[in-house]
Amino acid sequence: MTRILAAGALLAGTASLWLTSASAHTIKADPAEAVQAPFDIIETTIVTKGDSAVFTTRVRGEAGSEKPAATGKFEGSDVYAYVWPTSLNSGEIGFDKDQGIVALAVTFHPDFDDAAKGGKNRDVWHPHWVVLAEDKACGGGLKVIDIPEGTKPKVPETWPGVPLLIDSPEYPTTLKGDAVDVTIPLSLIGGIAGASYDGVTAGLKVNGNLHAPLLCVSNVFKVASGNLSLPGKVMPSK
Fold this sequence. Notes:
mainly beta; seven-stranded mixed sheet; six-stranded antiparallel β-barrel; 1 helix; 16 strands; 37% strand; globular; disordered N terminus
């Protein structure tokens, strides 16, 4: 938890933050005109429904309508993301234990594919699990954790083969109106019930030199709680 709070402090220093209120089921945030409407979070929720967990973020504008411009190359390219940082342990999503901050991210990046087993996903919004850590070299203070050359850490079956702690599962994902929704079978994330969470919208960037850190959080658009304190609690849907 110390690492999560420390990362929250870094994010707070790189984004304009707003007063929010939280309950067991949701984190609500006041609209902020300074944030582009498709990334201006007004509500973030993770609930369990039957045998699934449903991750939802609502924004002031049309979710997914703003996408990064294509650059024509992998290095230096941009990624936009709707993110749910959680208190899950990295061991619960198929990596080694205690590696960093576990987050679900719905991303769009027009310059490269990172689907499992060589699949294509550059032209659609799609989900990832990522494991994050602090890195002052990144504009947003966080990076997706690199896998050092020559090491063989534990990775999930749907790891896309890139040197990062990132997973590319095919969870049902929809962006419709003001909402982003991801549905995950509880059998795949049994530790989610009662977990803490938050909501973030952000831009990420691939290192132009392709060196570590390879994928940085470059710009935080908004943090639902205002300080990444993970005030939401995953509870059954009412």
